[in-house]
Amino acid sequence: MAEQLTTTSYAVLAQVAVHPWSTYELVQQRVRYFRYVWPRAESAIYREVKRLSSMGLLDGRKEHVGKRARTVYSITEKGREALREWLGAPVSPFAMDFEAMIRLFVAPLGTKEQIVSTLHQVRDDVREMLRFGGEVKQEFLDGIAVTQDQVYIRALAVDFFISLLNTVGAWTERTLAEIESWDDLSPDGKNERALEKIRELPVATPESVERTPVPPRTQLQRRRHDGRSV
Amino acid sequence: MAEQLTTTSYAVLAQVAVHPWSTYELVQQRVRYFRYVWPRAESAIYREVKRLSSMGLLDGRKEHVGKRARTVYSITEKGREALREWLGAPVSPFAMDFEAMIRLFVAPLGTKEQIVSTLHQVRDDVREMLRFGGEVKQEFLDGIAVTQDQVYIRALAVDFFISLLNTVGAWTERTLAEIESWDDLSPDGKNERALEKIRELPVATPESVERTPVPPRTQLQRRRHDGRSV
DNA sequence: GCGCCTATACTCTAAATTGGAGTAAGTAAA
DNA sequence: TTTACTTACTCCAATTTAGAGTATAGGCGC
User: Fold this and answer.
1) Quick one: which of A117, A110, A107, A115 has its CA closest to B84?
2) A40, B28, B100, B215: least surrounded by Cβ within 10 Å?
3) Cα B176 from chain centroid (whole Å)
């Protein structure tokens, strides 16, 4: 049995810290509230609670509903202590998977309809996530959220989620508008205008870039919790 | 040998489509330009080019630098065709890993210094990514980028990257300011104010949320390229 | 009171993926 | 000439995912 706790371990601990859950409920709640910041497979959660339980960080109690058994987990003092320790360790950086961006890179190989359709899907995904965000917002306003007593913390998270989605949504709209204004996907006469647009992007540029600096040797390396690079 | 192409396969194809690369260069360039939208392990890329090559989507040529061999890959017509087909398939939604958010959820278990330090790390990570974004911007303005002839497409990507980072950065700053204005991390007297703030968040709320709707059964499911759900 | 459907509550496994360790040759600088 | 770094990979154990599979519970229609 591996002893090293992963971020997924802490995510489960954090969830159980709110109050006891059965594994099934944990998975359901996870879908609802952790899906967007730390998406992991269902089976991984079932595996994780067992591990945490065997390490004494969670306390699992067998219950029965008729003949069917279920295990309800609560956090132990040792588990809470592990969380406290984790809070002081280096955090892994924000990372994302955004397939649509790769599509955009090779869009000129395909048709305008294809890339427009891809961006429509992104727009719809963002709308769906925003709908969910609105629902969570309403739950708090109605005072019926599971973590109602933690609004002062959760509000910060909802703010993040909604700001990010609005940004992605706005980008999608203006990109769609730009592409739809084109006759085709060829570069003809578009690069001039693009350079103007790129010049206006709100970010500082370095003095000059004669030689592009050597990139780091390996792929994105997340920080480990002992502070060493992996 | 599995026949199913993954998004990573297409990401590699998309990269080679620009022009031929040795695997080593591919990995280096990947770190530079794909790291932030589709981060994958180095070894996965070495595996992938071999697979794509054996499937006839890439053409690998052995070269020699002194006694040391290296393989340079270029895309085949079949590979280009595969990309074209992929462009018409459903795209997997935007997804992220954001450990700091989980930290925030359980922040009251630890100290104010801990959560402030975590947010400082996020701010620094964002700054570093923005610095990189500024560098890419400057490369295009200087006319020396590898994909200079594709500015009209790449500008859209740089726009995305910078907008997103500015949003994350701004959130980090205001969250830091909010938390630093607190005496401690207890809920005392903070929830009232938080509800006001949550009310102002720019997202529509549903009519009402009496029963929270049943969440989908499983974890985040990415769309597969044959259109079926996985 | 029976059949059907959906929800609960998991377990199991093949396949994929990751995070390194390891090997070896070229190149530059002290 | 020794050392250090870069290029150019291969290999593998351990983890993780995606999904199939198993079985009970409970509500609803008829």
Assistant:
1) A110
2) B215
3) 24
Inter-CA distances, B37 with A22, A129, B229, Å = 35, 19, 22
Full pLDDT tens readout for chain B, 230 residues: 456 899 999 999 999 999 999 999 999 999 888 999 999 999 999 999 999 999 999 999 999 988 899 999 999 999 999 999 999 999 999 999 999 999 999 999 999 999 999 999 999 999 999 999 999 999 999 999 989 999 999 999 999 999 999 999 999 999 999 999 999 999 999 999 999 999 999 998 876 554 444 333 222 333 333 333 32
Q: Which chain B residues are within 8 Å of A39, Cβ to Cβ?
A: 95, 97, 219-220
Q: pLDDT tens digits, residue range B57-75?
A: 999 999 998 889 999 999 9
| Both tokens assigned to B93 | 């939604």
Architecture of domain B7-79: Orthogonal Bundle (1.10)
- Tell me how far apart the alpha carbons of residues B223 and B211 are, in angstroms, rounded to a whole number: 29
Distance B86 CA to D8 C1' (A): 30
Distance, in Å, from the CA atom of A100 to the CA atom of B161, rounded to the nearest integer, reads 13
Closest Cα in chain B, distance from residue A160 (Å)? 6
Tokens 């006319």 belong to residue: B143
CA atoms within 13 A on the CB side of A198: 28
Rounded-to-integer distance, Cα A53 and Cα A123, Å: 41
Answer whether A94 sits within 8 Å of B95, measured CB to CB. no
Provide the residue ranges of all domains of chain A, joining segments of one domain with +: 7-83, 99-199
In Å, how far is B67's CA from the nearest CA of chain A? 23
Q: Is A108 on the interface with B (CB under 8 A)?
A: yes
Residues of B (4-63) whose Cβ lies below 8 Å from A? 7, 10-11, 13-14, 17, 27-28, 30-32, 34-42
